[in-house]
Write a structure and sequence with these properties.
single chain; about 650 residues; alpha+beta; Rossmann fold; Elongation Factor Tu (Ef-tu), domain 3; 6 domains; 6-stranded antiparallel barrel; 16 helices; binds guanosine-5'-triphosphate; EFTu-like_2; protein biosynthesis
Length: about 650
């Protein structure tokens, strides 16, 4: 039986040391120690040792729940650092860099992917306040996280880079917050930059959002200039949460993640009543009952408190087994005291799909486990098993956008050491049949064949988005051209001030997942910003492009696209395949076809290669070595009929088609 294990409490977070010993002096694994500790922790928690803090002295009128929303890179996370420093949550070492961006990928890419919250204690006019800040991601793919965060707030800081002015995401986020009825505090950041034009940016805010310029704070989150005005302004302008301490407990679950020490953690906003450790709560969504093992606030790590009460935002850990049980938007109530559920959120919709396959089929199980672990903390990724004749067993994953997809791939490779092949992204198409049935097509292999298309299909549909582009006036011509070459339908263009244009355009989502964003950046030399929201499905002439190697279809290279793109894409893929397929002992014909018609044809001429040719005489050992080496090389080949296709061929065709 375990007698001692070492637990170090560091800044409110449990950190396990490397060695654990049983009473008999035998070494036990850290996972066993952790499990044993968790069991004890849940059943007989000892409050005194856990250093719970008491926040019951903060009634709703001394609580402010707010977030920071902005365009990507306008400085939200840096401002969060300064606020955490001002309130003593983190020390002023000058080394704090986006403390709330905890994921490795966030630090490397300098973007926020996962919204994080942090509670701070702040004194203003002789009164102590509990300030709950929810940091939000800025990129378009993660706007789902933004709307979830806003549901837990009564107000928000709209941060605008004084040098860049209003960008597409600023507009989208403002209207998201405005639509939720939140109080918006506009703040101009980066006023220390020599290129900053705060007056101009303020006028843009006034003209776009009808906010008077004299209400706008000017700060530098980097140097700290004006930071001491931010929290007083939040206290004065953002209303306190409403709700009743005497009503039965009711809380909104607005975020969830898996913590390896306490299991599933749910971030909640308490709308009525209070909750403490040991309480039994019920999920309105599933009716499942849970026992609360810990309640607390993020400070900025998990810090247990004696209770969470009306108006407060904090976390609870209960005996939930997987994050799948925690439905974001769910309402919790106390057992035997049911309440009317709060309005939930629409589930996140997958906008982009891609196949993931292990490069080495023997790694399937390990990869399966890694994907499961990663999706534990990102429930917006949808996962379905998929089998491809060319690539073997894998998965079809749905993402919120291409950056989301890229971040997922990077995390899989870096955090889980996965060696994967990812197919080109596609969007979910729809097929409307003559008998009234509509089906989603998430992979090209689900696309009906030519006969079914002719006899049973009434129409094909693709998803569209309403997009907003903001850029300096001199790029108007190239932006209009970009939209029209991507099948865009331009709706309006207006001037935000004398030299900045806002263009509204309806675009097929499929055009955005390929190269639209990169072209937008290169054509505007990085000055254009772009944001979009779903605009439903519309009829579109869709066809399937197939790739045949010596007459055998290669399912992993097939694609669904608009009829107008098929000729160029067909020629392009055939040519690129010719460049990457190594010559083999016979001719290889490459064909791209659509509806049975050949679009392009290329041939890789045969080559008779004798790897032992250079070994004169009877050096049998050397011959064997060369033959073994050749065999080894062949293992990494995929066989398509008789044609051997190296992994690099897939990779090169697929990555190039994403550029
Ligand atoms: N000069 C200057 N640079 C700043 C200021 N605030 C932030 N930055 C820099 O701007 C860059 C982006 O800042 P972040 O805080 O990561 O921006 P963000 O809005 O959180 O970005 P996302 O989370 O990706 O949306 C970083 O290099 C910061 O150091 C400022 O006031 N002045």
């Amino acid at each position: 039986m375990l007698q001692t294990w070492v637990l170090v409490v560091q800044a409110g977070r449990r950190v396990w040391t490397r060695n654990y010993w049983s009473s008999k002096g035998t070494h036990i694994s850290s996972s066993l120690a952790r499990r044993l500790w968790q069991q004890t922790y849940i059943t007989k928690a000892a409050d005194s040792k856990r250093g719970e803090i008491d926040i019951s002295t903060y009634p709703p009128d001394r609580i402010r729940n707010f977030s920071i929303i902005a365009h990507i890179d306008h400085g939200k996370s840096t401002l969060a650092d300064r606020l955490l420093e001002t309130t003593g949550v983190i020390s002023k070492t000058g080394k704090n860099r986006q403390v709330l961006d905890k994921l490795k990928v966030e630090r490397e890419r300098g973007i926020t992917v996962k919204a994080q919250s942090a509670s701070m204690f702040y004194e203003h006019d002789g009164q102590k306040y509990l300030m709950n800040l929810i940091d939000t991601p800025g990129h378009v793919d993660f706007s789902y996280e933004v709307s979830r965060s806003l549901a837990a707030c009564q107000g928000t800081i709209l941060l605008v880079d004084a040098a860049q002015g209003i960008q597409a995401q600023t507009v989208a986020n403002f209207f998201l917050a405005f639509g939720e009825g939140l109080e918006v505090i506009p703040i101009l950041n980066k006023v220390d930059l020599p290129t900053a034009e705060p007056e101009r940016a303020a006028l843009q805010i006034e003209s776009a959002f009808e906010i008077p310029t004299n209400n706008i704070l000017h700060i530098s989150a980097k140097t700290g200039l004006g930071i001491d005005m931010v929290l007083p302004s939040v206290i004065e302008k953002i209303p306190p949460p409403t709700g009743s301490a005497d009503s039965p407990f009711k809380a909104l679950l607005f975020d969830t993640w898996y913590d390896k020490y306490v299991g599933v953690v749910c971030l909640i906003a308490v709308k009525d009543g209070a909750i403490k450790r040991g309480d039994k709560i019920v999920s309105s969504y599933s009716g499942t009952k849970y026992e609360v093992a810990e309640v607390g606030i993020m400070h900025p790590e998990q810090k247990p408190t004696t209770q969470l009460q009306v108006g407060q935002v904090g976390y609870i850990a209960c005996n939930m087994k997987t994050v799948a049980e925690a439905h974001v938007g769910d309402t919790f109530y106390k057992d035997k005291h049911p309440v009317e559920p709060l309005p939930g959120f629409e589930p996140a919709k997958s906008m982009v799909f891609a196949g993931i396959f292990p490069i080495d089929a023997g790694e399937f199980d390990r990869l399966n486990e890694s994907i499961q672990k990663l999706t534990l903390n990102d429930s917006s990724v949808s996962v379905h098993k998929e089998t491809s004749a060319a690539l073997g067993q894998g998965w079809r994953l749905g993402f919120l956008g291409t950056l989301h997809m890229d971040v997922f791939r990077q995390r899989l490779e870096e955090e889980y050491d996965a060696n994967i092949l990812m197919t080109s992204p596609t969007v979910p198409y729809q097929i409307k049949y003559k008998d009234g049935i509509t089906k989603f097509i998430r992979t090209p292999s689900e696309f009906p064949n030519a006969i079914v298309m002719q006899e049973r299909v009434e129409s094909t549909m693709e998803p569209f988005v309403s997009s907003t582009l903001i850029f300096p006036e001199q790029y108007l011509g190239s932006m209009l051209e970009l939209c029209s070459t991507h099948r865009g339908d331009i709706q309006t263009h207006t001037y935000l001030d004398e030299s900045r244009v806002m263009l509204k355009c309806k675009l097929p989502m499929a055009e955005i997942v390929t190269d639209f964003y990169d072209r937008l950046k290169s054509k505007s030399q990085g000055f254009a910003s772009f944001d979009y929201e779903e605009a439903g499905y519309a009829r579109s002439d869709l066809v399937k492009l197939e790739v045949l190697l010596n007459g055998e279809p290669v399912d992993a290279l097939a694609a669904v696209m608009h009829k107008s793109s098929i000729a160029t894409a067909g020629r392009d893929i055939a040519k690129r395949l010719k460049d990457v397929i190594r010559r083999q002992l016979f001719d290889i014909s490459i064909q791209t076809t659509s509806n049975g018609k050949v679009i392009a044809r290329e041939t890789v001429k045969q080559l008779r290669k004798d790897v032992t040719a250079k070994c004169y005489g009877g050096d049998a050992r050397r011959k064997m070595k060369l033959l073994d080496k050749q065999k080894e090389g062949k293992k990494r080949m995929k066989k398509i009929g008789r044609v051997e296709l190296p992994q690099e061929a897939f990779l090169s065709v697929m990555t190039k088609s994403q550029e």
